[in-house]
Specification:
single chain, mainly beta, seven-stranded mixed beta sheet, four-stranded antiparallel beta sheet, 11 strands, about 50% strand
């Protein structure tokens, strides 16, 4: 089992920045690829970014690369999502997830999920 706890969400004005953190406990963190997803009210959960177990490989959802950066610190069992130039349409609950399958944009490939952290971007 892996337990994931997100933090760092909040209310920010458009154009601002936030850094989300996801702290993992349980099994060896470096064994897992990690992903960030988000879900806006009334919408399906969507892929944001993923990072390989080593941190060498990253991938982003459409239109997010350049504004969002995913990273991880295996020594701290933590994955991060740096979000810059935020827009109102980025408003959502953000979830981190762990995958034994490997880096993936597909929700079904992730085994463990955090409870989510709310990000609200005002215009």
């Amino acid at each position: 089992q892996v337990q994931l706890v997100e933090s760092g969400g909040g209310l920010v004005q458009a154009g601002g920045s936030l850094r989300l953190s996801c702290a993992a406990s349980g099994r060896t963190f470096s064994n897992y690829a990690m992903g960030w997803f988000r879900q806006a009210p009334g919408k399906e959960r969507e892929f944001v970014a993923h990072i390989s177990w080593s941190g060498r490989n990253t991938y982003y959802g459409d239109s997010l690369k350049g504004r969002f950066t995913i990273s991880r610190d295996n020594a701290k069992n933590t994955v991060y999502l740096q979000m810059n130039s935020l827009k109102p349409e980025d408003t959502a609950v953000y979830y981190c997830a762990a995958s034994t399958y490997g880096s993936s944009w597909q929700i079904g490939d992730y085994d463990y999920w955090g409870q989510g952290t709310q990000v609200t971007v005002s215009s």
